[in-house]
Amino acid sequence: MAIRKKVTKGSQAWVYPLPALLIGTVIDGKANFMTAAWGSVANAEPPMLCVAIRRSRHTRKGIEAGAAFSVNVAAASQAREVDFCGIESGANLDKAARCGFTVFYGMHDKAPLIAECPVNLECTVAQIVELPTHSLVIADIRESHVSEDCLTDGKLDIAKVDPIVYVTSPARKYARLGDWVADGFSTGLSLKT
Ligand SMILES: Cc1cc2nc3c(=O)[nH]c(=O)nc-3n(C[C@H](O)[C@H](O)[C@H](O)COP(=O)(O)O)c2cc1C
Hints:
mainly beta; Pnp Oxidase, Chain A; 7-stranded antiparallel sheet; 3-stranded antiparallel sheet; 4 helices; 14 strands; binds flavin mononucleotide
């Protein structure tokens, strides 16, 4: 493999790609959804995730008040709704109504779920780490919902989910997953001694 000549570009959060998740909360009795790209899996057992929410977001209030939220994995076909939920605040309008989302609930009444999204996770807040601009919300994943049409032989079929991802600066665009390039936990075995 060839060595690549480098230039420095300062402190940049260049992590590619990021998920484009719809975070659901209940605020003043109303379901609200906010786009969050700064999210990740955080723990295996129990399954946990984390999401970085700027303190000024309306969503931050719902997380504080309800101690629960949802993570809705949107499909590539939902780019318009995902972007809208990332540029408008639930403090000013009913984003769920504007997007035509059908909201349903599972086990947590403070974790509204979007029926039109292929995958939905119900989460309860475990810990909040306050960082300079964002609250890193660490949560237990309590239940998962998947659309029946995204299953093949009873298993989640990621090709059918067709999740939307966000490609951050300088592109600032939404994309879908591309081709498989190799098998995980397998293709590296040939480098073992
Ligand atoms: C692609 C995309 C990703 C975003 N990711 C985040 C994020 O990870 N954390 C965050 O605090 N805001 C993020 N935002 C901004 C919020 O979604 C936006 O401020 C939204 O209006 C907040 O909604 P709310 O006020 O109803 O909570 C993102 C916006 C877009 C378009």
